[in-house]
Hints:
By secondary structure, this protein is α+β, with helices and mostly antiparallel strands. The protein has helices at about 10-25, 35-45, 80-100, 100-105, and strands at about 30, 45-50, 55-60, 65-80, 110-125, 125-140. It has one domain: STM4215-like, CATH 3.30.2000.30. The chain has 4 helices and 6 strands; from the N terminus they run H-E-H-E-E-E-H-H-E-E. Strand 5 (about 110-125) and strand 6 form a beta hairpin.
Amino acid sequence: MAISKNTLxxxxxxxxxxxxxxxxxxxxxxxxxxxxxxxxxxxxxxLVIMETPLVSVMKLNVTGSFVQSEVTINFDVYxxxxxxxxxxxxxxxxxxxxxxxxxxxxxxxxxxxxxxxYDSWEEGNKKIHRFTFAVKFxxxxx
Length: 142
């Protein structure tokens, strides 16, 4: 998929989503951009939330002709089982690592996966577990 600096956030989200949903899919197809109670009731768990990418633009020379952008995508993985949460999180990370070369050809280089935080809470008679982590890329237009 072509990524453009003019639609960088949308293009990056679409590229990563397509990769982990279609090209090299994870076992759950419950991948969304945000979570709400209606989604939880209709889809159930596990859920993988891939937030809208955060983009920081950096000019790397005095003329401003070479621009590199730092792109960070936060992922939240939800499950009712702590053990299964780890399995789904590891699967997402594994698929992202496997896509490193494909992302690179689209201009997403130097991928870094930043380990995150674990949280859990009671929701009715269920215990919900969440793991949050971030994936960072540097984008240079091809």
